[in-house]
Amino acid sequence: xxxxxxxxxxxxxxxxxxxxxxxxxxxxxxxxxxxxxxxxxxxxxxxxxxxxxxxxxxxxxxxxxxxxxxxxxxxxxxxxxxxxxxxxxxxxxxxxxxxxxxxxxxxxxxxxxxxxxxxxxxxxxxxxxxxxxxxxxxxxxxxxxxxxxxxxxxxxxxxxxxxxxxxxxxxxxxxxxxxxxxxxxxxxxxxxxxxxxxxxxxxxxxxxxxxxxxxxxxxxxxxxxxxxxxxxxxxxxxxxxxxxxxxxxxxxxxxx
Length: 256
Hints:
The chain has 256 residues and is of the alpha/beta class. 56% of the residues lie in helices and 15% in strands. One of its GO terms (molecular function) is transferase activity.
């Protein structure tokens, strides 16, 4: 499995995009009931605020450095130089490689419209990909009976990879709660679904390199994301600054 390095209260996996694709497909081939988190700043801050969520994140088989600040923080916290590995980029790569390795996939979450568009693109671009099933659950907590029925349906479809898009932190909590119950490698890819479906555009590469995706999403959904981004981004900067000062203080005796 990929090596991990501690960033604040989370252990982040490291490697190049091809390493992540291979590690995830290996989990799928082994039919391990495991899950993969695509870690951004919001999740790092949530892990610091909520120890229970921190445990969920650290129990992931793979914690992908999805956000550019998260990738940079790996190096700031003493790990290797790490590039961002975005879920929006890894999803199509995983589908292509799954087809190559004859693994099947299941799409769970978002809306029927998004799922139809995803399936249409996948069948157009990766016609040999085996899509075991799709399902858009209701936007409310499921009853125990409903949840059991959905688990049974997923397991009957028997996918190797289960892509989950329920939003953070709901999808991470859902995957952790279903580890051991669903016989597939689960991946919490969130916003990658509508982007892959072609229903939401992505920023140009130059803007992503300047870490501006958060600003673009804020422009799209100011009421929903405004308070979250203000609090989490400020908290992340504070936590990283405090970590840097603690590291500097620890080095002072040695320098003296």
